[in-house]
Fold each of these.
Amino acid sequence: MIRGRTFLLLLFGCWLISVPVMFYNLEEYHTLGGKVFVDCPSGLCPSEEGHISRMAPGLPEWVAPPDKPDHVWPSFNESEDRILAQMSLNKQDGDKIKLILIYAGFLNEEIPIGQRKFVEDECPVTNCRLTRDVADITKADLVITKLGTRQLKEKYPNRPPNQIVLWFQLESPKHAAASGVVNWTATYRRDSTLNAPYYKFVTYKDGAGHKPAMTRNYARGKSKKVAWFVSNCLATNGRLEYAKELAKHIDVDIYGKCGTKRCPRREHRRCEELLSKEYKFYLAFENSHCRDYITEKFFLNGLSNDIVPIAFGAPPDDYARVAPPHSFIHTDDFSSPKHLADYLMELDANDALYNEYFQWKGSGEFINTKFWCRVCAMLHEAHSSGVHMWYDLNQWWSGDGVCFKYQPNGKPKPKWQSWRNASSKYGYLNNTYHILWP
Ligand SMILES: *[C@@H]1O[C@H](CO)[C@@H](O)[C@H](O)[C@H]1NC(C)=O
Ligand SMILES: *[C@@H]1O[C@H](CO)[C@@H](O)[C@H](O)[C@H]1NC(C)=O
Ligand SMILES: *[C@@H]1O[C@H](CO)[C@@H](O)[C@H](O)[C@H]1NC(C)=O
Ligand SMILES: *[C@@H]1O[C@H](CO)[C@@H](O)[C@H](O)[C@H]1NC(C)=O
């Protein structure tokens, strides 16, 4: 859960260019393409240039999406986020400017209205205009909102019949219920119409920019083992219970309310250094076990520092899809916290093995996924191609297989969730959306 925890993010994140004073949800701002980071410890910050235009002479090229470049709409059993393909879309549907209404509730002041955002972001398609004026709901081509269509219909009966409702959510279903029908979705889930991941890593082509032989020893000078910064001690997936069990077998320092260590928020720089300099492993434990739900805890607190993140949340396959190669450890790969601790001790005693988890550094970058460029381009794409789609949120967002569901079958409730214990298969996301090709 992110909302209202701006400071926690600042605590371990890179230093921000500008810290919006009243901004209540920094992660939304960032995920949806707000200004990003400078001065990150390991040069691993999201690139400021972002975008394909980054492929200027001299800059390393990104590995292109493995799928077809025109694969921009989600398909059944989706395995691609389609982000690069959407970023490359440059077809414009006539000269008409599409009107996009940002409906109350988020991104209040940060994103400029009008056409500016699309121009500033150097979008391939700039023929869109942002508005926050609710009166525009009677003519907007698209409404981005956290409401479902039914709620909108009740409030605003006079919406145009072809208006696209884009449902936006960065929380997991465990913390954000949803129902009703919407046309498009923008969430961290890969099978959203517009995937809005917390961070996206892109590998450089031909290993460009990759420092050849890694000379640095990331284990040097580290006297401590496992760290965790956490403030919500009540997550129902048992992450605290897991950490406490782990702590019986290896030193785990828990900072914040749920533990005994403190590192004050105002000293976030020092806290961040503490991770990189003194600790070998970081518990990037999510508050829910839901498919694809991988947050800044993993990317920012973990990968962007010189520390190996230990994942607990989404299944290992979901992490493997978005993380740099051999960059993390997953609790589900071990049959118990004790077995995990054994492995961590092994890495602790073997610098060569430990350093393998840092080989990926320099092999790619975290990119700005140009959310608003993609909204605009997809809107033009939808209009020119005539694709219609809609999601029943009840099924798509909260249906079977999305989050871990515990089915007791007479057995005692486990102390923590693990996909190893999932009673049903989670082999693919059950895409219960509807798509109509013209
Ligand atoms: C879904 O995709 C995965 C990976 O591409 C594949 O292993 C699996 O068999 C697919 N499942 C179905 C039902 O198509
Ligand atoms: C939007 O969703 C509705 C169902 O709520 C559907 O009838 C309509 O065709 C969709 N429109 C587009 C443009 O996808
Ligand atoms: C969950 O899975 C682990 C590892 O496979 C197993 O040891 C444990 O007994 C399981 N717990 C339950 C409640 O099924
Ligand atoms: C997908 O979801 C639908 C609707 O909930 C359900 O009827 C169907 O059995 C599910 N399919 C799988 C493979 O889980």
Note: The pocket of 2-acetamido-2-deoxy-beta-D-glucopyranose (ligand 2) is lined by residues 149, 162, 164, 181, 183, 388-390 (CB under 6 Å).
Amino acid sequence: MADKQAPRDSLTSSHGTQPDDDDRARRGGRHGGAGWVAAAALAVVWLASVTSSVSQSSSRTGQSSQRGSDQAAPPAVFTPAHRNVADAVRDFLGVRPAAVQPIAFPHNVHIANRLGCTDYCHAGAAVGPVAGLPSVRTCMICHGSIATDRPEVKKVAAYLDRGEDISWQRVYGYPRSAHVRFNHAPHVRAGVECATCHGDVAHRTVATRSTDLTMGTCVGCHRAKNAPVDCLTCHF
Ligand code: HEC
Ligand code: HEC
Ligand code: HEC
Ligand code: HEC
């Protein structure tokens, strides 16, 4: 599928900034001592983050999947800046806002209609590293003729008419700075269920992050199943 690579690409572009911000925040933190020194350091961090000329999407997780029309233009030059202090703090603490999807896609309705997870929408999961998110054309395979009178389906058709893709937001994923390399296919081959890592999506409407896929989760199961646990299995 043509858009298979898109989520990872956008993840990459919105995370190039992370290490510098963390570094800077930690360095700020070491100025412990007198309260005013810490305050001054914070002020410097704050100034650095708000005066930079180019702001950019700063969510830790690369929320917008692709070509989102509501997204700011990509920055022309590299900048480690956050849009504002609150964003910088959230990013440092690793707080991720929940995804807000442009279409209220009901997973449950489709799965009840016998559409499999990897049939059209996440076909990449069965064959390679990236599961993929469906393009508007994939939806229109069916919705060119099915349920065309429903409001949410009309929104889908309108995307195609405008020649625009649906800007799905990422639900899972890691900041680039964690240098995590994940690969779906070996898990599917080994019979690990989608639900083990993504929860009961079959009974949900939009996907929500139900599982915290931390390193502990990965390594724990790898140990239990005799899958490789050396660092380079999962990191680059
Ligand atoms: C393989 C066929 C198929 C594909 C592909 C498909 N759908 Fe559906 N969709 C259905 C069927 C069948 C229904 C149930 C229709 C009904 O209730 O009569 C449905 C229902 C819906 C509904 C609920 C409509 C309502 O309000 O009751 C939405 C929204 C929707 N689809 C969006 C999408 C989007 C977005 C995509 C692409 C990511 C997509 N669908 C891809 C077959 C499909
Ligand atoms: C062993 C755990 C695991 C299993 C099993 C698994 N996934 Fe994933 N999935 C992940 C991780 C981790 C990510 C984020 C990967 C990344 O960004 O590189 C992800 C990302 C995704 C995404 C992109 C969603 C988003 O918002 O980022 C989709 C779609 C997806 N998986 C679908 C599936 C499907 C369908 C299956 C079953 C065929 C499946 N996954 C099985 C761990 C898993
Ligand atoms: C529920 C169990 C389970 C979980 C959770 C899990 N894995 Fe796996 N993983 C496996 C199994 C089983 C294999 C297949 C090993 C094989 O093919 O011999 C595998 C294989 C892999 C491989 C391919 C290894 C290779 O070189 O053959 C990578 C990469 C990987 N996992 C990364 C991850 C990451 C990153 C996570 C956490 C997001 C994760 N896994 C979570 C069970 C799991
Ligand atoms: C089976 C997969 C797997 C293996 C093996 C693994 N890691 Fe990880 N590691 C992860 C995942 C996934 C994350 C991201 C977790 C998160 O962000 O919550 C991570 C995060 C990290 C981080 C934090 C990175 C950051 O910036 O957030 C460090 C450091 C790290 N791993 C080091 C190691 C080292 C050292 C080894 C070898 C001893 C190792 N890892 C082996 C999956 C793995």
Note: Residues 6-93 form one domain.
